Amino acid sequence: MARQERAIRTRESILEAMASLFVEVGYEAATIAALLERTGLTRGALYFHFPTKEAMARGVLARAVTREGVRPQKHKLQEWVDLGLLLAHRLPREPMLRAAVQLSVDPKARSLFGTRWPDWIDVGEDLLVEAGKRGELLPHAVPAEIARLAVGAWTGVQLVTEVLPENRDLSEEISRLYRLILPAVARPGILAELDLSPCRGERLLGPAADAGAPVADGTPA
Fold first, then answer.
1. Domains in the chain, start-ordered, CATH in brackets?
2. Which residues bind DNA (predicted)?
């Protein structure tokens, strides 16, 4: 068991180190030699876990789609919003997530192993379908369309925010995105009860949430 736990920790450390390299220099320029220097591993130890750089990239992408921090709420639309706000809070702080986005927009990397955008769309669509069944959406709102366009908009906002000279906060920008989207798809009574605060992602992952305390659902938008 101890050996297995060490192997899991080593595998995780390799992925984290390679993710940092992908963020810093891109997929093409990230080399095995640089990874070995960063981790202190031998080639044999590295190849025991990952035989190629492509395998490591796939490992990074596999961690991209997560509902960590999303808790059951009164409204499924709140859970859908929480999904995006949590990612906005975590992405600047977690190289693994940043690397996954970078790999997804890199033409060379994308041609080799695709992206996880379809999976994000599916996760969002599932929540939106449930929201529709509960009467939270306007009659014209189509969950599949909302999920697809929201993922595209979220990604675009993240990429633009990252290069703007004003050092804008991603959580604030994503909060603004939801404030633009939701009036067009959510019933007014539901919209008034949604918490779209840019601080919500941080609260969901904060000490109170870790301790099991509920995170309020109902702060007016």
1. 2-62 (1.10.10.60), 76-210 (1.10.357.10)
2. 31-50
Strand-pairing partners, residue 137, are 186
Tell me the pLDDT tens digit for each residue of 56-86.
Answer: 999 998 888 888 889 999 999 999 999 999 9
Which of 116, 17, 14 lies closest to 64 in space, CA to CA? Answer: 116
pLDDT per position as a tens digit, 121-132 = 999 999 999 999
Q: What is the DSSP string of 143-204?
A: HHHHHHHHHHHHHHHHHHHHH-TT---HHHHHHHHHHHHGGGTB-HHHHTT----TTHHHHH
Longest Cα separation, the chain: 60
Q: Which residues pair with 186 in a beta bridge?
A: 137
